[in-house]
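Sequence, please.
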């Protein structure tokens, strides 16, 4: 393994981008832009990790060592195929540039030794502009794989973070989204957005509050966002919930009913609907004659 990473000459329009202070100055987010230089303060006694949305293709720089023993200004650690790298300064007032190749573009970082380092720098993809267009063609096999990825998201996030780097995710633990239909309710627990497929996957819990089985059409899930309704593209459900029980279901929506992109944000206030097959329970009201109270006489 080479101890010194060769410098790659890259022609870019250089604009110094200073990382703005946030509530936590040691953790920063920066939008990816291959026409800017990102200045990153790095410490001698701390490690700075630079995170990308997906696997890094190549790293170029001068004055870097990978083992800490070979002379250098900075020590660099990176596992091939991973989406992040870590660096620390080896000398006071050290400075050097680091060029990182990702998604067929080169991004330039200017590292400088500092007593106030950034410990985690999260590089984010620019937001996709809201634009008209046709929804991508997503095959049934691909939809199944998206459901499986949503189900395994916690495990993938911890063991293969690069595989879910571009997946939007939110949970509604603090502010649940519940659709109440009297004798049953549907609660959205988690939501995932796969932007390339213009697909949202939902994990929902269906609670049967009655004493009779709840039967519904398993492929009839629909999502309401504002005044628009989006039918499911796939679901994983058996179509029934036992009395006084709860069932977990996954379903997805892709594009719009007219074939366009939905570009739905996970911040929407969603409502989940499903076609019920079993009749609602009949509530029997018995009118019992009310006897007048007798007056008490002493």
């Amino acid at each position: 393994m080479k101890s010194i990473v060769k410098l790659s000459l890259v022609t870019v329009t250089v604009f110094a981008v200073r990382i703005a202070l946030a509530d936590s100055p040691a953790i920063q987010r920066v939008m990816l832009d291959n026409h800017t230089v990102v200045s990153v303060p790095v410490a001698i006694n701390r490690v700075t990790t630079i995170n990308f949305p997906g696997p890094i293709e190549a790293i170029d720089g001068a004055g870097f060592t990978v083992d800490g023993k070979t002379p250098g200004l900075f020590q660099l650690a990176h596992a091939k195929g991973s989406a992040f790298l870590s660096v620390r300064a080896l000398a006071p007032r050290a400075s050097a540039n680091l060029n990182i190749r990702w998604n067929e573009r080169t991004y330039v970082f200017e590292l400088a030794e500092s007593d106030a380092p950034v410990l985690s720098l999260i590089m984010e993809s620019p937001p996709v502009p809201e634009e008209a267009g046709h929804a991508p063609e997503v095959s049934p096999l691909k939809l199944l794989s998206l459901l499986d990825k949503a189900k395994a998201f916690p495990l993938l996030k911890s063991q293969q973070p690069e595989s879910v780097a571009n997946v939007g995710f939110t949970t509604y633990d603090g502010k649940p989204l519940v659709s109440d239909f009297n004798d049953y309710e549907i609660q959205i627990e988690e939501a995932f957005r796969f932007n390339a497929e213009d697909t949202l996957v939902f994990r929902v819990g269906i609670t049967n509050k009655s004493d009779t089985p709840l039967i519904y059409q398993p492929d009839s899930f629909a999502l309401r966002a504002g005044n628009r309704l989006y039918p499911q593209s796939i679901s994983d459900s058996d179509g029934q919930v036992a009395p006084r029980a709860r069932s977990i279901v996954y379903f997805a929506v892709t594009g719009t009913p007219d074939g366009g992109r939905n570009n739905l944000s996970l911040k929407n206030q969603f409502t989940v609907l499903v076609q019920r097959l079993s009749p609602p329970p009949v509530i029997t009201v018995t009118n019992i004659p009310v006897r007048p109270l007798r007056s008490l006489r002493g």
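The radius of gyration is 28 Å.
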